[in-house]
Amino acid sequence: MQCLIFRRARIVAALVLLITPSVLLAAVSDKEPTFNLFWTIGLTTALLCVVVTRIKPWLGTICLIPAAIWYASLFLEFQSPDVGPHLRSEQGYIYFLQAYMSCTLPLCGLLAS
Description:
The chain is mostly helical. 84% of the residues lie in helices and 0% in strands. The protein has helices at 2-25, 35-55, 57-79, 84-91, 93-102, 104-112. Helix 2 (35-55) runs antiparallel to helix 3, helix 2 (35-55) runs parallel beside helix 5 (93-102) and helix 2 runs parallel beside helix 6. The longest helix is centred in the first third of the chain and has 24 residues, at 2-25. The relative contact order is 0.15.
């Protein structure tokens, strides 16, 4: 009876060890922002910069600062050796391309007004 319990415990442990690496691999992308958030922050900041710069020209640069800090922290995380390669393998190059393209929107909004 005791041998049967140990045998089942070994089978369960082996199954857990086989499943665990795939679960750990998926843990990188769910902690990163989605590409929809890239575009939302970019477009919102661009529109805010356009509207506010029409009122006072120096307010546009103040509105640009939080988005610039957010994008800078995002790009630093992309370049980190423990997150960047895994994120690139899970999300692909399109994810990075959209992040870099959306970061130009606030600057374009500031320069357009």
